[in-house]
Amino acid sequence: MLLSFSFATYAILEGMDRRILLLSDPDQRCAALKLCGKCIKYENVPCGFKRTFFLTIPALGLVALIPLLVPLFGSWYDVSYNTMIFDTFYHYSRRFIYQLSEMRYCPTAAMVLLCTSLLILVLNKTNPLPLAKVFFSAGVGLLGFGMFRSLLTATYSQDLVWFTFWEESTEFLFVMGTCFLLWIFRHHLFEKPVR
Known about the structure:
This protein is mainly alpha-helical and 195 residues long. The chain has one domain. It has six helices and two strands. It has helices at 2-21, 33-36, 48-68, 96-123, 129-155, 160-184, and strands at residues 79-85, 88-94. The chain has a two-stranded antiparallel sheet. Helix 1 crosses helix 5 and helix 5 (129-155) runs antiparallel to helix 6 (160-184). The model has no long low-confidence stretch (mean pLDDT 81).
């Protein structure tokens, strides 16, 4: 799921760039030119798309602080029980190491990757978007995964059967939605953009 969030974010950014906004193609006119007024491709002005990341990345960094502000040993859910499902014995437990990973490691790593993306945008003056998108997508993937699992943990902390059900169901829906979108756009997905 973590990689799914990252790859989906990268695919959306690349799709918007290559098919809709045409930012990376130096020969094509940017689709946001009417919105921005002036374009970095033709004049020495800042790119509007790049400037939106200067707001988005710090905002996502603040969102990553939410699980980090949970007290270190205050709000952990230590649950373990046995149950029968269709006459089969199951043991469910929500281990501390998983919660630590979701509520500490994922947000911290997301903040590091998002800050790296922001630094690339600030320091690389020639063509920062391709590399910045990679780090941004990786950060969003970690943040999305950690927040999603933390939400499920908080919601279903005492009923791990439903925790597992909703985790697997939403992952299945995500995969099916991705397959559905690929099927819809299958004829034109790998064509070169029209010039």
